[in-house]
Amino acid sequence: MKTLKFLCIIIIVCFARTGARAQNIENKMSNDDWNNIITLLSNEKWVDAEKLSVKFLDRYTDNDDSLAEPAILRYMNLRCVAARLSEHEYSKEKAMKKVEKFIGKTIITPPRPFYPKCIFNCLQLSENKKNLFSCSSNTDKTTIQIFETYIMADTNLTKDTSALIDKKLRIGAIIKDIKTGGEMMPRFDITFGDAFIWDEEQ
Questions:
Q1: pTM (2 d.p.)
Q2: CA-closest candidate to residue 169, choices 195, 145, 137, 191
């Protein structure tokens, strides 16, 4: 049920294209395409999901950067590469080569809950209380994949987060910087800029 709900959310977002010219661009992802890659991600089949995300991203050009579909696919690809880095399948150097082309590009995340304090796969305030932060991990929470810092376009948002508590939020943002960190548990450290959020249930 979670997979089907997530699929519905993504399809809705895909049709909510940004930019006036986007209304005239044919949708390049079918329902089956989304269902296939979401199923692989849900089952943590990182190798197959990474290959499929690259295949789907090849359908788009740099001129398509204002569209939701490639933004969603980029984040999916980041998670796949990060997962393989965290599991020592990729060296830090190889992982960086795979994702550095995304710097300056847009992403859209899946929905995550916001809590005042949390650890894995949720949103909270960063240590400096100025940004949103998330620690992405595998389902079993045995490997850390990405430390994600979101610099919000509206800085007032982080001054009072009481309205965000327990809501499942999606984030759209631009990738500002990607680094690697950790030795025994390698991961990505990614900073996103111009971030904005919306509640998936609204």
A1: 0.86
A2: 195
